[in-house]
Amino acid sequence: MKILSEILIGLVALEHIYILYLEMFAWTTRGPKVFKTFPKELFPKTVSLAANQGLYNGFLAAGLIWSLFITDVAWSKNIAFFFLGCVIVAGIYGAMSASKRIFVVQAVPAILALIITLLA
């Protein structure tokens, strides 16, 4: 169960590294293909806003990755719980404010990782 927990935490971290990449480095190129509901003419105008969001996604990924390297089991779980909780809250807020799809793509994997980590 511990290995499954670590795999799921790693996958959530990888997802946020990908989001970081999209929002910080590929907003005007790959972004319109991924974020299809966002008007194309707004991508160039929102580069700095997207980059800021990408940076925050990077912090989430960094915290999740950090949790995988902590040797103390209790601390490792606590750090994972905190950052998974942040991802879940961001996913819920994104679903309420932008697109329901964000809940499925962002919050659901974090919820699964959180449940498995609680059981591990």
Task: Describe this protein's structure.
The chain has 5 helices and no strands. The longest helix is centred in the last third of the chain and has 25 residues, at 73-97. The protein starts with a helix and ends with a helix. The chain has 120 residues and is mainly α. It has helices spanning 2-25, 31-34, 47-69, 73-97, 101-119. The chain has one domain (2-119). The mean pLDDT is 96. The relative contact order is 0.17.
Would you spell out the secondary-structure blueprint of this structure?
Elements (H helix, E strand, L loop, with lengths): L1 H24 L5 H4 L12 H23 L3 H25 L3 H19 L1
Helix pairs in contact: 1-3, 1-5, 3-4, 4-5
Protein traits:
about 80% helix; single chain; mainly alpha; about 120 residues; elongated
**Tally of strands:** 0
Overall pLDDT: 96
Class of secondary structure makeup:
mainly alpha
Helix proportion range: over 70%
Shape from CA axes? elongated
Summed up, the domain count is: 1
Q: How big is the Rg?
A: 15 Å
Query: Which percent band covers the strand fraction?
Result: under 5%
- The end-to-end distance, rounded to whole angstroms, is 5 Å
Which stretches of 5+ consecutive residues score pLDDT under 50? Answer: none
Major sheet, described briefly? Answer: none
Number of helices: 5
The secondary-structure element order is HHHHH
